[in-house]
Amino acid sequence: MNKRTKDRVLQSINFTTFYLTACKSVSKIEDLNRFFKEKKVITLDDEDTVKSIVYATERLSITTIVFCTMTLESFINHYGSLKLTKPYFDDCLDKLDLKSKWSKIPKIVTGKQIHKGGEAFFLFSNLIELRNKLVHDKIKIKKETLPEEKDYLWETDAYDALKCVKLMIEELQNIDNSIYTDWIL
Question: Would residue 59 count as lying in a domain?
């Protein structure tokens, strides 16, 4: 097995592993939410349980968001390295930001672009924004105010991240039906 083949195998293992990690996190969020579905009335006695569920859900949402972003980056790098020459990919595309890779690589390979006006690209833009907030966290000094809804991560962010992966892969498959999609659940 030559180095390029080994790199391709490792990349394919990466995006599937990243995606399965994100799926497992969402599954755990769903398990945690069973508490709320099974409990008819939540009382003060449940306060500690509710707090731990909310905290765990936020951690699992972070995992899902980061791993879905990693999935999409790994997949587009894998796709580009399979479809383009190594020198061209390495010299011209490898260092692009993730949104640019998803815009340029399919266009170069197929002559067509991913649809940027649809739900997939909207969720993709939101996913990158959330991931950047998490990974490039900066301390903000603000006047004392109550936190706003946008300051929190919600389980819907995790669900949207997983949906984004599926929709972006579908968008790519719409313009290049040769891509392998059996790894998406």
Answer: yes
